[in-house]
Amino acid sequence: MEANLETISNEILAGNRRALARALTIVEDGGPEASSLVRRLFPYSGRAQLIGVTGSPGVGKSTLVDALIAEIRRGGLKVGVLAVDPTSPFTGGAILGDRIRMQEHTLDRNVFIRSMANRGHAGGTALATYDAVRMLEAFGYEVVIIETVGVGQSELAIAQTADTTILVLMPGSGDEIQAIKSGIMEIGDIFVVNKGDLPGASKTASEVMHSLELAKLPTAWKPPVLITVAETGEGMPEVWAAIGEHRKFLEASGLLVERRKAKVQAELEELVADMARSNLKASLAHSHIQDLLALVVGRELDPHSAAEGLMQELFGNGGR
Amino acid sequence: MEANLETISNEILAGNRRALARALTIVEDGGPEASSLVRRLFPYSGRAQLIGVTGSPGVGKSTLVDALIAEIRRGGLKVGVLAVDPTSPFTGGAILGDRIRMQEHTLDRNVFIRSMANRGHAGGTALATYDAVRMLEAFGYEVVIIETVGVGQSELAIAQTADTTILVLMPGSGDEIQAIKSGIMEIGDIFVVNKGDLPGASKTASEVMHSLELAKLPTAWKPPVLITVAETGEGMPEVWAAIGEHRKFLEASGLLVERRKAKVQAELEELVADMARSNLKASLAHSHIQDLLALVVGRELDPHSAAEGLMQELFGNGGR
After folding, report:
1. pLDDT one-digit tens code per residue, A289-316
2. Which residues from B are below 8 Å from A299, CB to CB?
3. Do A279 and B320 touch (CB under 8 A)?
4. Which residue of chain B has the CA closest to A215?
5. CA distance B104 to chain A (A)
6. Does A297 sit within 8 Å of B257, measured CB to CB?
């Protein structure tokens, strides 16, 4: 298998798309093979501009991503897209299967679009996303777009693995605006009111701008609020320009390095948590671990005490 | 502090609402105090019927929860509500602050409504929810409703800490239906098309029913699809009756015990992961851990190898 992984890595570096697809499946599944692949390709990663696109279902994120791809391609850059889906914890199937709209790009070898399923828990999905980005970077994509569906906690966390995060709204997104007022505002580097041909687009844009004025922004960056009609491409050059502006700001302010360092730390925390989780799962069959479980189910032992016992079991004296 | 926690536990058991509010803040914050409180009150937990309510922003979840409270109170049962919000990882503020609609219940001592903020990562929020439910149970609430905003992965996981999960839709929820078709379907025990007075309600209900017929359901339970107008209370007795039916099904089939066992296992996995994460966070200041971080940022060491090194550092020989 190691020999096989060596072949896959070499083929990715040589620009073989099938090898890239294989590698993405491997990192999606996680485990030792994924780690081994990342170990090989890590030196070739970290080179792309990472753009996160998030927002509620129905605001037109996918169409916007399509239009953004077209914009980026006009500039000659190669672009990879990861569409991360919230899915059933039971089936793990991806829901964005029918990206029919994106078919116009499928003949363009400089565009790669991939839907990613989840890995059963939010942290695992974020980990898979980090690694998938590395595969696309090693292949040579200069821009990677990470699209997530929904404004849930884990989806936001995933969108924020990017350098620049775009929050997409549509006219009359009342609930969204309410959310934005009290926190989510700090997550968007760029705000886009899509479906700008619907009534109320400029009102929604004004509401967002007003909220931004009241918000305590975490950096000196003032997030622009743009109106687009992604379906016709209207407003898209402005979105791409804003991404470029934000990139310049990140570099000039030293925030690019700072953010990437914070992301490494977040990834390591998640990896360590994931290892502990896997360690427990692998040990579930042991009879004394089953006994602990039974005690909790029978309400004879509380979960916190049980978890401390498990840490001892799994990690010996080091477990707190 | 331990003496203080003893007072809080005793006052909760004696029915002091202020003590309950304090306790919820403590479990929301997590850490050793939360564990200590859970340890004390765990024997009094596990007694409530747990109902999860989830769905996208705008479908009228909060109004539905209000109407459900009224329905439950008519039967004389005491009800607690936890509204879990997706919020900014930076501020941690709750967004459902203005539950003005719920004010009619605030004078009813047998109703307790609480918005919960997140704990910075999805797993932590789920853990806080488990513990918050225990506090409400120890206080004596016979029904606990767990309301989550959004259909993201972590929100669904939180809604599923309940025995019965209600997925709320509205007429014309096209994107939702698409999601339902390929997975989320298996998450709802009861489907509610709210805002049933809008055009297309029965069409949406039919689409859901059709998808359910095609879906491979995980158990013998056939999820009912109900139409409501939560604002007027229309259809709410049927929702409450369906919850009762599902409860009977869970008990008769032995699934109630099986589900609770699976939840204990999920909680322990998350607790162990959380302990590993906290352990790393507490050690971040150490210079050799800072050195490891710097190596990754400088691309001299990949994150997977670094995490393995960290497991060794944190847990000694036991870390795989």
Report:
1. 888 888 998 889 999 999 988 887 777 6
2. 42-43, 45-46
3. yes
4. B91
5. 22
6. yes
Give the Cα separation of B125 and A125 in Å (integer): 17
SS3 A11: helix
**Inter-chain residue contact A174 with B58, CB threshold 8 Å:** yes
- Coil vs helix vs strand at B220: coil
Q: Write down the mean pLDDT value for chain B.
A: 84
The partner residues of B225 in beta bridges, in order of sequence, read B191
Contact: B183, A87; criterion CB under 8 Å: yes
Here the tokens at position A227 are: 């109106």
pTM for the complete prediction? 0.76
Residues of chain B neighbouring A156 (CB-CB closer than 8 A): 86, 88-89
Q: For residue B249, how many C-alpha atoms fall within 13 Å in the half-sphere facing its CB? A: 16
Q: How far is CA A279 from CA A284, A294, A316, B270, B310, in A?
A: 9, 19, 13, 12, 15
Paired tokens of A83? 């569409």
**Cβ contacts (< 8 Å) between B157 and chain A: which residues?**
89, 121-122
Q: Is the pLDDT of residue A187 over 60?
A: yes
Average pLDDT, stretch A44-72? 90
Contact criterion met (CB below 8 Å) for A148 and A54: yes
Contacts of B137 in chain A (CB under 8 A): none
Task: Enumerate the domain spans of chain B.
Answer: 45-253, 265-318
Nearest to A272 among B46, B293, B311 (CB): B311
Q: Which amino acid is at A244?
A: G
How do residues A214-269 score in pLDDT, each as one tens digit? 777 778 899 999 999 999 999 999 999 999 999 999 999 999 988 888 889 889 98
Q: Structure tokens of A200? A: 């109320």
Q: How far apart are CA A200 and CA A172, in angstroms?
A: 6
Given an 8 Å threshold on Cβ–Cβ distance, is B182 in contact with A91? yes
| Cβ A35 vs Cβ B307: under 8 Å | no
Beta partners for A225? A191
Contacts A90 to B, Cβ<8 Å: 183, 186-187, 218
Q: Which amino acid is at A281?
A: K
Inter-chain residue contact B310 with A268, CB threshold 8 Å? yes
B215 has pLDDT over 80: no
Sign for the pseudo-dihedral over CA of B89, B94, B96, B98: negative
Backbone angles phi, psi at A227, to 5 degrees: -110, 130
- Report the distance separating Cα B104 and Cα A62, nearest Å: 41
Bin B235: left if φ > 0, else alpha if -120 < ψ < 50, else beta: left
- Quote the Cα angle for B292-B294-B300, to 5°: 80
**Architecture of the A45-253 domain:** 3-Layer(aba) Sandwich (3.40)
> What percent of chain B is helix, strand and coil (3-state, nearest 5)?
60, 15, 30
pLDDT over 90, % of chain B: 48
- The helix (H) or strand (E) run that includes residue A191 is strand A190-193
